[in-house]
Structure formats: C-alpha cells, structure tokens
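User: Predict the complex.
Assistant: Input components as received:
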Amino acid sequence: MDKEALKSELKVHLVKYLNILDYKPEDIADDMPLFGEGLALDSIDSLELIVMLEREYGIKITNPADGRKILTNIEAMADYIMEHKKE
Amino acid sequence: MLQAQDEVYISGFGCITPIGSNAEECLSSLRSGKSGIRRPVLFQSKYASLYLFGEVSLSNEELLSQLDVAGMKGLTRTDLLAFKAFKEAVESAGLSPEEISSPDTAFVSASTVGGMCLTDQLYKDSNLLTNDSEYLDSYSCSAHANRIVERYQIKGPVDVINTACSSSANALMHGARLIRSGRAKRAIVGGVDSLSKYTVNGFNSLQILSSDRCKPFDSERDGLNLGEGAAYLVLERADELKGKKASAQLVGYGNSNDAYHTSSMSDEAVGILRAIGEAASMAGLSGKEIGYINAHGTGTENNDSVEAEAFRRFFDPVPPFSSTKSYIGHTLGAAGGIEAIISIMALGHGELYPNLNFSRAIQPQGLHPITEFRKAELEYVMSNSYGFSGNCTSLIFKKA
Amino acid sequence: MYLIDMLAISPQESWNGKAYLNNIRIVSGNKLMAIEPDYGDIIKPSQLRRMGKALRMGIGCGAELMKRNEELDGIIIGTSEGGLEGCISFLNQIVDYDEGTLTPTNFIQGTPNLVAGHLALISGNSGYNITHVNGGLSFENALTDALMLFAEGKAERLLVGNVEEISDYNFNIGYLAGLYKGEDSLSSGLIGSATPGTLAGEGSAMFVFGRSKQPDSLRLVDVACISYPTKEELSKLICRTLEGKGVSSSDIDAVIAGYSGDSRSDFWYDDITNELFPGASVYTYKNLVGEYPSSSAFALKLGFDLLRGDSVPAEIVKKETGRPLRNVLIYNHYRAKQHSLILISGDFSPEKDSSP
C-alpha cells in the first residue's frame, strides 16, 4: 500500500475507532495535530489508537509514552507504520 | 448528634474473603499477617498467570455444599459468595426466619460485577448462541439480591447499590438511613463481587493492575490486585437489640462526589475530604477521636497519594491507618462491607491490623501506615471507600 | 417532596413539554425506541462521541435540567442496567480478541454509576451522589433515597432520575427469557393483548425535587415496594402506605397501572384496581413507552402532567370515571416479582404533617 492510501485508510480508522462526530475522514489534514489542538484528543483516545494500530496493522506499542510520539498526526502515524511494516 | 431512637447498632456480620471463609478465619489471618494475594487456582483468564489476585479458596462446588440453596437454578459465583456471607451474618445476629422476612427488615446489597463473572456464557446468551440457558436471570447487578430475597422471603424494603468500588459502604449507609427514617427496624447490608474476566480486562486496560503484591501507601506502589468476596452486616435499632450484644454502633457517614474525573481522583481530594468531613460532623467528632482508619488504599498511584493528601489536610495528627487490601486485594462492590467488618473487629478487640508490603512513604505527605499488629484502645474507627466516577463514602463506627 | 422541574426522553415526543399527550406515537415491532433530542447544546461533541445511548439520554436529560436548576444538593439515579451496550461490547471484545489489548472506554461506559458521576463532573457538584440498581425497583429506590434525604434535612433540592436503554444484547437475553412478544405487534394494541410477553422500551426521565412547597404544589407523597408478594401482602402494603399518609383508598382518583400486555401477569393490575380502587380511573403508560425496569419514571412524569390538568389522551384510558385528579397512585410491577407504589398528589391544601 502506498503512503497516500495508507493515510486515507488511517483517517477512516481514526474516525471509526474514536467515533468522531465533528470531522469526516477527508476533513482531517495530514499534519493536523491529534492531541492538544487540532482534533484535541485525550489520553483515552491515545489508548484507543494504540489498540487500533495493533488490530489493524499488527503493531504493538507497549509503552504508552512512545504512543504519544508516534501519534502526533496522520503523517507521523503513516511513517511509523511503513517503517515497521518493512522490518 | 444522634438521638437514642436513631442509634443503629451492628448486631452481627459474616464475610468470605481470600483470607478466610468466615469472619473468625479472616480475623486470625489479619492478626498473623497472612496475605490472601496469590496466583489464582480457580479463576480462568489469560491474566491468571500474569497478575496476582485475591481469590476465595472455596470452589463453587464447595460453596454449594455449604449452602441450603437446593432447587435454585442459574447460580453464579457471585450469588454463592453472597449467600455464604449472608447466612453467616443472619446467624451471627441470631435472626429468626420470621425476623428476616418481617416487613420491618430491610435488605440493602451492592455489586458491580453481578453475574458478569460468567463472561463466556453471557457472550453466548447475549449473541443468541444458546438454547435453554439457565443463566438468563443471572447477569444483572441485582441478580444475587433477588435470589437472596426469594430464598429468605424478604418482604421489607430491598435495594441494590452500585457506586463502583464504594458500593457496599453506601449499602451500610443506606441501611442505617432506612432504620433512622422509620422505614425499617433492622437492615441486612453489604455487598459481593467475584473475580471476572470482565473486571480483569477492564482494570488491565486502565493499566492499574500490579503484577506483584499491591503496596498500598508505598512510594513504589504500582497498582492494585483484584480480589473477590462478600460481606453482610446486620444493623438494628437500639430498641430491637433486646439484650443482644452489639459489636459496634454506626455513628457517622458521609457521601460525596469528587466531580473531577471518571477514573481518577483530584489532587485536592475534594470528594474524599467532603465525605470524611460529613461523617465526622454527623458523629460530632473533630477527627482527633478517630483511633484508626481503614483506608481505601488500593495501591494505585493516584488513589493512595490523594487519600494521603486528604488525611494530611483533615487530621492533625493523622491517626493510625492501614489498607487491608494488602491482604485481600480490591474486592470492588464487596470492599466497603468487608472493610467495615474489619474496622468493627479492630474496634471490638482493641487491635490494629498492619498494612503489608510497605517500605517507603509517599512524598510530600510522608505518611506511614501501621506495619505491625498491635493492641490499641479504640473508641472510634473510620472506614473509607472510593469508586470510579468520583463516588466517595466514609463510615464511622463507635465501640458498643 | 415537591416537583420543581422535569424532563423526559422516551419513545414519545416528550422532550418538549406535554405536547406528546396530544399526539401519541404508535410503533410497530417489538421495540419502542426513544426519540433522542439534538444533544448539541447540552453535551460537548468530544464527550458525546464516547457515549452509548443510555449515557446520552441520561446525561442529556440530567444536564439540561441542571442547566435550568442550579444549586442542587445531590444526584440520585435509578437504573437497572446502565450503559449495557458499552458493557457487553467490552465483553464481546474480551471473547472475540481472546483477552487481547482492550481500551477502557467501553469498560468505563459499562459502569451504571457513570451517569450520576458524569452529571456531578460536568456540573462540579460534589454533593450526595448515588446509583440504585435494584432491577424493577431501581427508580423507586432512588425516590425513597430522596425522600429520606429531605426528611433528614440534608438537602433542599435534588436531581432524581432513571435511564434504561434497549441494546441488542439485553433484548436478546430478555427475548430468550420470554419477556417479549414473538409476533410483531402495534404498541396501540398492547393493552389487553392475549399473548405472553411485552414490548421492549427505553428512556430517561429526570426530576428536580424540592423539600419545600412549590407554587403548583405537585407533591410526591410516598413510595413503597415489595418483592415476590402474595396478593394479600401487596394489598396490605397498599393500605398501610395510604393510611400512613392519611389517604383512604377512595381518595385515589386515578391509578396509573403498569399494564404491559403480558397475558401472564397483567391480572395483578386488574385485581388491584378492581378490588382496592373500584371508584378510580385507570390509566396505562406502557403502550406509550414499552416495558423496562425503571419505566415507572415515565409514569411519574405522565402522572405529574395529568395532575397539572392536561386532558387525558384516549389512548391511555383503561377506565374513566371523570373524577378530577388530585391523588394519583402509580402501581407497577416488573415481571410480577418486584412491585411498587408511588403516591403523588396535586395537594392544594397541605397536610398537617408538613414533613417532606
């Protein structure tokens, strides 16, 4: 899967897993911050996204602190997934 | 202050916990510092080999053989634990079958897991994968209470409370209020919960389970151990005791909400302080008279530091305290009832039960729980219980 | 205790006052689903997205009432099952993913005390907070709790309410247990149905009660409950409860009875209304909202609306005597096991006993 397709897919998962009401997948920009500003997600969302990465991409993040670094925005998530799929 | 006709006494109790199948056995474990936290033998879960638990050692078959519940179908472990403690409680208070089913006798129970201990069966039933399941009426938080009501023909006021981990402390409070309002002359109160995949996976998802024995109030604490058990107490109005020896009097209670976060407590301990304060003021105490606090003390990072902060702010000096969850684990809906019984035993026998697994105090409060069993002259003891969604309850017992 | 304000989300258009009484909805099938309002102004989108239906209804209803009525001394909720959808969806994930990595959202959602807790959280209310979960008596237990708090002098104003949702899971379990009708039916034909089972319902009704008398004097006088009674025990309880409040059975102008259309257990309502209240009108409500464990909360909302003098819709009349309404008794049972009475009155001349 190329990176653009992966990013689109990630946005769909994000909206589905977090049941986001005020954004459609296509409204989420690649560089929009997920936490703090932008989507303004919280710590429970980050746990949800860690579960999403495991279930959808087979990627296990054991340390939640690492999670926050990977989950800065869609771009960063896509990079991380592509890197770890190569391994 | 309470008027004479409002005085509510504890005339009997019963419990089953990881440190004993009845109150007497629990007492001897507390005195000898014997913990019930271990690898579970009966509980089936992927996490059974990863974490330690407070498991009641009796199997469902053994429990059944000790109970008179012939003909009742669909009994869960939650139901069996509840029946066991209930039976001991009414026997210890010397209640006759007529007294138990009198319209003047209330029953207030509590549970958070209910019949969901049958995770896999519930999965099948709720997804229409079964025929003729005997458990369809077994799942809700009130199922165990319905069974007790049916078996003992309880005709007075019945209630079941779920305020998460403070549930059965609220059941005690509610029973006392039913008596004081004139709606009942006596009340059988308490709660039950059994180990379940549901709660283990839930607490695991919150990352607050310890893979070691929990270390309440220790600076290195790293989470709680889930436990199971049941506890019931018989509360009676002073003039209903009729010569019976009461073990304690319930003189104060306070209920509040921390109104801060769904699964953690505020640094300022708003809810905890309000519950403690209301209980103390109802009992007409300033705090100095409290000789022992049975703390909520789960062993999680958040709970113990906030509870310690509340102690530091309210008490001067902070009375001796300990968390007996270090013996039993966190029994959720049963915890308030079990810890009320432990508080009453401390009061009755004039002794303090140590907080296990403690070595260094949480800073900046620097509070040290009791770490050795010892005798003490006690007049008043406090028992605290806190639950998710901010529910806080404090109870104060007086020596009878 | 006295009614200050109320609000209900139900299968009827009850969100906006009493208009539902003039326009009763009829539903076909065996589930009466609640009509939910637009929560946009009440619940933040970031919170709303995590809420299952029970939470949305309970918090939507409660938060709106709390906006209109500040300075409440506590929050008391009755719910048999709380957010069961979230709870069982968590449980399904435990089994489907073999106890794999799970997130806490559904676990926390599944705790029944979350509605009361969340209402405290969003309003910053650190007062009395409790959740009663005693099946078909959950809401009555909540009312009793409020009556006692007022009598103890520990509260001036309280929020009391219920919530219950239809989830696929509890519907399935109830269906297997024979609670619901096997055949598709119309809610309008529910009362008097000759078949076993009822229609599932859901909703939330919330009330703000005050300790002291309010301008329109709508009063909740008393509540009483009994489990697994014989008919004699139930009759005795009814008489004792009324007597205790200085009311005789002939003072009851109407009984709102919990007829559920279940041919196995509706005889209780016939027997009690015929034998104890032959001179009273008899009204029904489950043909409007279906059956669920804390449905008497909707009956209470209906009762207060009728006491305020609204014309009684023909759909709910089982028996009409034409008596003006002053004392109304709500009698309900859940699965013929848990029976309850709620006595309300448009008490225009206060009793000598001024206790709440």
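Chain A touches chain C through 15 residues (CB under 8 Å).
Let me know if you want any component modeled separately.
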